[in-house]
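User
New here, help please:
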Amino acid sequence: MSNQLADWHHIITARDLNKLDAILADNATFHSPVVHTPQVGKDITKMYLSAAFHVLLNDSFHYVREVADDKNAVLEFMVEVDGVQVNGVDMIRWDHDGKIADFKVMLRPYKAINLIKDKMRAILEA
């Protein structure tokens, strides 16, 4: 496992939002499962990831599979939110400096997408 991926797992385990600044590239891009255009920039990527932490990182969150090399990781996760089983994938690409340059989230099933969309919207609009 790369150091970058180990750092990501540590942030998830510790639920430490303060570490996001250190691991995100200035031009990081976030791809949401419900927003049609990529969200570009460290601040907006941090905003989306922070909201996702609040919505998804409960005691049931866990990664069930990962495929990774030195610059990329695909991490499949499971979590229960409000009684709904959410299955998702985080696709992460690191730049040459070891910072997250690209973060894409995919979710299923449809019921879960709508639930997470509504919860994320409430946090992002607050």
User: Anything to note?
Assistant: The mean pLDDT is 95.
